[in-house]
Amino acid sequence: MSSEPVNLDWLKTGDLKSVVAQRFAEFCANDLKTNTFSDDSDSDLYKEAVQLVIQRIESSAPGDQ
Hints:
By secondary structure, the chain is mostly helical. It has a domain at 19-60. The protein contains 2 helices and no strands. The protein has helices at 19-34, 40-60. The longest helix has 21 residues, at 40-60.
């Protein structure tokens, strides 16, 4: 388990328009804080997947929700 704090600068909820995207981002932030990854590629893949899902939610959200 790494003792380094998890950098969540890329996972900001303030700029998200959709409530669903905000809740998903908060869930992922909490998940990242409680889980460890076996190597950097796992954490990079997780980050890419989260960003993709948030992007899809935001693009399909009809205006402010």
